[in-house]
Amino acid sequence: MAFEHCVNHPQSMALWRCGACQKNFCQQCIREDQFSDAVVRLCPQCAGRCEPITPVEQEAPRKPFAFQLADAFVYAFRGRGKFVIIAGAIFVWLLMLVRFVLLSDVSMGMWVFGMWLLQGVVYVLAWGYVSAYGVKIIGETGKGEADPPDVPDIRAWRDDLLQPVCLIAGAIVFSFGLHLLYRFVWTHYKGPTELLRWVTLGLGVLYLPMALTAVAIWDSIGALNPVLIVRSIFKAGIGYLLASAVVALLCAVVWSAFRFLRIEIPYVGFVVQGVLQYAVALYCIMTVMRICGLIYYAYEDRLGWFPD
Predict the structure, then answer these.
(1) Chain segment 60-81, per-residue pLDDT in tens
(2) Is 308 part of any domain?
(3) φ, ψ for residue 37, nearest 5 deg
(4) How far, in Å, CA of 153 to CA of 160, rounded?
(5) Which residues lie across from 40 on neighbouring strands?
(6) 3-state secondary structure of 191
(7) Is residue 45, in this structure, part of any structural domain at all?
(8) pTM reported for the whole predicted model
(9) In this structure, are 16 and 82 located in the same domain?
(10) pLDDT (tens digit per residue) in 172-225
């Protein structure tokens, strides 16, 4: 329910509702009369009996989006989030290690098709689980939850693992479609154009947060409809531009971690480096998904995706 205000003092929270006229009043407005041993609250306008508005019926005013955005940076360290980052980084690193071993087995005569099939399974297990958790973060954040959710149950692998992979991958590919077209077609046949490269990349970065938000909230790849996404971006306004800039920064952090982070420790350096890189990646992914959920939570009324 929307935040209730006093009819006489719009800046004040309403604590009482008249049972007769159904108007809301703050504590300052209410009349109190003593009947026997009980205090009765009466409406100042119609003298009807007033009842307290319970906490379930109203929620605290939402913070400005900029403050919510800043809070997203500590989201991954709340509750079970720290465990998810550590355990998830080890899990993904082990799966990537399996993939590396499979690649090295080509010289051992492993059947090529089987090798690539196994690699595909490894990728789905690793990034599918991450995608499933990311979709869950967006959904829970969109409902107003403050802490990271439980890790997803993937016993129903098609709905809990494969579908989130398709949603997240679809959002990423669709967002950067023009950039991919530039990279794989324009560059090879028309020559590189530096301005076009950055323009298409920038459009992808701008499109991505709303695309991720839409597919997670709607739970459908059809939510990537450009009309819906572009219209929603304009409705969200300046706050969304700020969110996109932060998402771009987090993506740059992940890229830098895998490109430049090196741990030169004998024997265990590659293990520490790999786990740390994936820990940074998981933290950034959780933060990005939190930001996407906050976009919906903050601008739900403006977006109007599910009108009453």
Answers:
(1) 556 778 888 888 999 999 888 8
(2) no
(3) -100, 5
(4) 7
(5) 33
(6) coil
(7) yes
(8) 0.72
(9) no
(10) 999 998 888 877 776 665 555 677 778 888 999 999 999 999 999 998 899 999
